[in-house]
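User: I've been trying to design a sequence by hand for this structure and keep getting stuck. Would you show me what you'd pick, starting by listing the structure so we're on the same page?

Assistant: Good idea, let's start from the same input. This is the structure you sent:
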């Protein structure tokens, strides 16, 4: 009987990994306000007079401004960044953290990604 339980545990783990991989590919609609904020920062990357961001941030902003849908995995990256930097970004346009926050979509992106996390990620996993 113990052998059967171990086999079921392994089967459950394999099934969970396949299910999780499928969920991470789920396409999530990008709100217009998030896209516009990311577009503003993306367009200012050479003309703002402030050295900000890196290639990954610019690629994320480009995806936000140019696509209507993003995979859940990218939305989770946005959520991770916006939650971590929610209170540490500057409100001054002359500071790099102001523009980096906007590359991720700013406050609207934080609220949007938080709602997506609540909808798609089980509470037990979130905590």
């Amino acid at each position: 009987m113990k052998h059967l339980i171990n086999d079921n545990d392994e089967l459950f783990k394999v099934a969970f990994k396949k299910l999780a991989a499928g969920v991470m590919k789920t396409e999530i609609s990008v709100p217009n306000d998030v896209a516009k904020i990311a577009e503003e920062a993306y367009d200012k990357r050479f003309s703002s007079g402030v050295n900000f961001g890196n290639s990954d941030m610019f690629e994320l902003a480009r995806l936000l401004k140019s696509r209507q849908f993003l995979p859940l995995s990218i939305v989770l990256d946005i959520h991770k960044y916006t939650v971590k930097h929610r209170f540490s970004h500057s409100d001054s346009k002359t500071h790099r953290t102001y523009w980096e926050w906007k590359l991720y979509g700013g406050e609207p992106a934080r609220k949007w990604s938080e709602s997506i996390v609540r909808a798609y990620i089980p509470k037990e996993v979130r905590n």
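That's my pick for every position. To get oriented when you compare it with your attempt: Confidence is low (pLDDT under 50) at residues 1-7. The beta strands are 27-29, 69-71.
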